Amino acid sequence: MTSVFFAIVLFFNANVTAIRNDGVSTTGSVYTATVTNVPIEMQYDNNKYFVSSTVSAVTVHLSGYNRLQITNEENSETRNFYLSVDLSGAKMGTNVYPIRVEQLPSGVTAQIDPTYADVTVEEKASQDFEIIPKVDKTQIPAGFSVSSIDLSEQSVNVTAGKESISKIYAIEADLPSDVLLTDNYTGKVSLRAVDSSGKTLPAIINPSVVRMKVNVDKLSKYVPLNVKLTGTMDSSLSTIKTSVSSEKVKIYGQQTALDKITSITVSADITGVRAEKKIEATVSADGVSVKPGTVEITLSPVKKK
Fold first, then answer.
1. What value, to the nearest 5°, has the Cα angle with vertex 161 and ends 158 and 165?
2. Domain end residue (candidates: 167, 194, 218)
3. What CA–CA distance (Å, rounded) separates 226 from 224?
4. CATH number of the structural domain spanning residue 66
5. Which domain, by its residues, includes 97?
6. Which end of the chain is more exposed for a tag (fewer CB within 10 A), N or C?
7. Interval 72-89 mean pLDDT
8. Peptide bond into 39 cis (omega under 30)
């Protein structure tokens, strides 16, 4: 059987074990260190089985009379010891297995809490799944809507236990929880396997990260543009005709603000106008933004007969 070491998430009971190598002097100061996030290396046949559990890190309490030794074991780059669970004779399903401290240097004591791990062993299976993008509604502010979501990958390969993989409802690409969609978003997002209730399932997803692009629109609608003539018309004219570069404009905002607006009126001062004239007018309305923000109004005088 091929032994493959795999750092995995484990759930532990509340026991404590102390392991100490022989040949240690018991005189002098005792140096201690607490090492967090120490992975468990699983010994099992990776070609046949898929192993999972629920806790990602273990804390190890070290003590000894040699300060340099303790410092070395505290550092992951110089550390000699590791934690292991032997699954070479494991049964299928969820069972309890002892956690062992391996290669602990002479003169160093290690306390781990707990001493056992609940581990689920399943027959290994693999399957392709389509990726489903997910944006929580709380990430879309009032007045905005998601117009499209694009992913760099459409499907991925998933490896899990045979029973677990049958429970996978979807592979979700979740927009990071700290993102508020007040503008378009582009970035890398992690994938996760979920069941029909949205619970995350243990699985190896390849690739595990994809690029997501979310295009955002504000709520909007088109409204007609009206021209109001102001000022005094020249006495030689019978009327002044108007035309606008855009007969409709698009307004953006919250739904309550959009509902209040059915049209927008812009003003054109006709004082002193005797011949055709083009003027620029600003388009605005309360509680919304408008595109275009300016329009060109053409004033065409009609002389009296």
1. 55
2. 218
3. 7
4. 2.170.120.30
5. 4-114
6. C
7. 95
8. no
Examine the domain organization and report whether 208 and 236 are in the same domain.
no
Residues 79 and 41 in one domain: yes
When pLDDT is averaged across residues 182-186 and rounded to a whole number, the result is 92
Q: pLDDT over 70 for what percent of the chain? A: 90
Q: What is the mean pLDDT of the chain?
A: 89
Same domain membership, residue 257 and residue 181: no
Of the candidates 136, 144, 126, 226, which has an alpha carbon nearest to the alpha carbon of residue 172? 136
Q: pTM higher than 0.70, yes or no? A: no
**Residue 20 resides in a domain:** yes
State whether 226 and 181 are in the same domain: no
Question: In this structure, is residue 252 part of a structural domain?
Answer: yes
